[in-house]
Amino acid sequence: MNVDLSGHTAVITGGTSGIGLATAKLFLEAGANVAICGRDQDRLDNATATLTANQSDDQLFAAPCDVLDKNSVANFAEKTIDHFGSVDTLINNAGQARVSKYEDTSDEAWREELDLKFFSVLRPSKAFQPYLEKSDNAAIVCTSSLIARQPEPHVVATSAARAGQLSLIHSMARELAPKDIRVNSILIGVVESAQWQRRYDALPDNRPAYDDWLKEQAVAKGIPLERFGKPEEAARALFFLGTPLSSYTTGSTIDLSGGLSRHVG
Ligand code: NDP
């Protein structure tokens, strides 16, 4: 099935690497206009070079923005509208996990983590809502995690914050439905990312090949499909939920955990 998104604009926070970058690529390939942001200018430049390698740069707008900074997000929203005139899809993807257990997580770390998980959704959603309300195909999609439903002790604060964030996303879905804005999320288990490459690079020289090592990690984590997900696999789910392909779906989640999810319902 070919999906033609000419005239559609997608905003992707954290679009400079991993899942966000793969999602930007998919929307561009479907003919959409795409706005991406991240905090680091070098990463923005690299992402721009990657995304425009095989096509004109007219469809892409890349700008620095910290999703936790209200003014920065307002500025990004304004510039995106100046550039493309409208917004149809917002992908709230920016973020990272915090590795810490209950015993060693400081009050400050708890606040930072709760701030990140709540305001990375709230700030962009509020800033882009007036424009989404004008779209006939408005969708907000959030990149979330399986740990929202299945907490892991080694990421205690991220697990708790993701659970609260998922509650917020479901509330937004109810409240924004009368405005014809759908709100959904994807729940990721583990997706290959720069973080795993860094952990591999830090291993001694006699380490196994990267792909073998990744498979070992997946098996050790008990992932039934015995591998990590790929950014492109998460991107396809975000694309589905962010486009009219899922026009009757709101307040829902797609699981991308390779079978790691154990909860029922
Ligand atoms: P990456 O580190 O590859 O990408 C994260 C992106 O978010 C980068 O573009 C980064 O750019 C940006 N970012 C981080 N903080 C901010 C901020 N405050 N403001 C704006 N941009 C920000 O990670 P992934 O692609 O793996 O992760 C994407 C999302 O998926 C994250 O929210 C992550 O927590 C979530 N996730 C990932 C899992 C995985 O296994 N990979 C598992 C579960 C959830 P910059 O640093 O330059 O700002």
The CATH superfamily label of the largest domain reads: NAD(P)-binding Rossmann-like Domain
> Would you give the CATH topology of the largest domain?
Rossmann fold
Bound molecules: NADPH dihydro-nicotinamide-adenine-dinucleotide phosphate
How many alpha or pi helices? 8
Question: First CA to last CA: what distance?
Answer: 30 Å
Whole-number total of structural domains: 2
According to CATH, what is the class of the largest domain? Alpha Beta
- Strand composition percent: 15-25%
Question: What's the architecture of the largest domain, going by CATH?
Answer: 3-Layer(aba) Sandwich
Mean pLDDT: 96
Which blocks of ≥5 consecutive residues have pLDDT under 50?
none
Strand order of the largest sheet: 3-2-1-4-5-6-7
**What is the helix/strand order?**
EHEHEHEHEHEHHHE
| Main pleated-sheet profile | 7 strands, parallel
Net shape: globular
Radius of gyration of CA atoms, rounded to a whole number? 18 Å
Helix content: 40-55%
Structural class from helices and strands?
A: alpha/beta
β-strand number: 7
